[in-house]
Amino acid sequence: MESLTPSRAGSYSYVVSASRRTDIPAFHAEWFFSCFREGCCRVTNPFNRSQSRIVSLRPESVVAIVFWTRNSRPFRKRLAMLDDEGMNYFFLYTLTGYGPGLERQVPPLREQVEEFLWLTGRIGLRRVVWRYDPVVLTEEMDLSYHYRNFRNIAGLLQGGTERVVVSFLKPYRKTRVRMKGTGYRLAEEHEQSLLLQGFESVADACGMRLQCCAVPGLQGSALGGKCIDDRLIREETGIELPSRKDPGQPPLCRCIRSIDIGSYNTCMHGCRYCYATGDRPRLPERAAGERPFPSALG
Q1: pLDDT tier at 293 (50, 70, 90 boundaries)?
Q2: Count of alpha carbons within 13 angstroms of residue 242, beta-carbon side
Q3: Cys-Cys link to 167, which of 77, 133, 148, 188 (CB 3.0-4.6 A)?
Q4: pLDDT at 291
């Protein structure tokens, strides 16, 4: 097992990212908690499926689990299991409200906001981070649209979180293919700057700190941020972690090192800009049968 940093118990521990590859809380809660009960999961190398490794999910091995999601409702009745085992955990919660044109199976914004606020009420404001990600520009979704949309969502979440992370659409291969016909374009640098000024003003008014993920020119500024953030984890858990970036992530990403679990092409939200899912994602029941997320023993 790869080791990253000494833990409270003196053994070596790491952060688990669950997951950049899929929405585990929304679609694979049964798999995750089955693995959690076993104490570990098997992770397959997405670039060489003949290779896999066992990742411990025991609190003595894991500093924290960071969940990436758009819908945490399937986790509601299971959070107590994490608490009972003394597991530290955080949620990176994406709310963009773009609608079914770009987000085919994402729950309505009203339901997402309700779930987000329930979660922050359950585990605390600082442990649930809002992600407005990615900013997608089309003829209809121009800078004015995004300013209004961001302001609306920020108002709905006011008092329910202390941090928002923003990023802009990246031209990944799967993204380019899936976005054909939408009239999308990439934001130019001056447009990013102008929009972020407006976002920062809104965030401040709503009691949130704005940070940016993988935006050129901002890495060393006050707006430069990390989705998986050693400072936030330290402030909430008291555990020191190395602040250096994860070498396995893109150059502009400043997230600290973590072990990502899960599998590509198994998210059913149907977001057209997604880099992790093709046009034919595995259905949850099919995914379980084909075991794209094998347990440690399977």
Answers
A1: very low
A2: 15
A3: 133
A4: 45
Helix 143-157 to helix 109-123 angle (10° resolution) is: 40
Residues in the chain: 298
Q: What is the mean pLDDT of the chain?
A: 89
How many Å is the maximal CA-CA distance in the chain? 55
Residue 298 within a domain:
no
**3-state helix vs strand vs coil in the chain, percent to 5:** 35, 20, 45
The whole-number average pLDDT for the span 219-236 is: 85
| Domain of residue 196, CATH code | 3.20.20
Question: What is the number of domains present in the chain?
Answer: 1
34-66 burial, b at 16+ Cβ within 10 Å, e below that, comes to bbbeeebbbbbeeeeeeeeeebbbebebbbbbb
- Domain presence at residue 72: yes
Task: Name the β-bridge partners of 53.
Answer: 43
Cis peptide before 108 (omega within 30 of 0): no
Q: What residues have CB less than 8 Å from 34, skipping those under 6 apart?
A: 295
Predicted TM-score (pTM) of the model is 0.90
Structure token digits, residue 22: 């899929």
Query: Side chain identity at 172, as an amino acid letter?
Result: Y
Q: Which domain does 220 fall in, by range?
A: 5-290
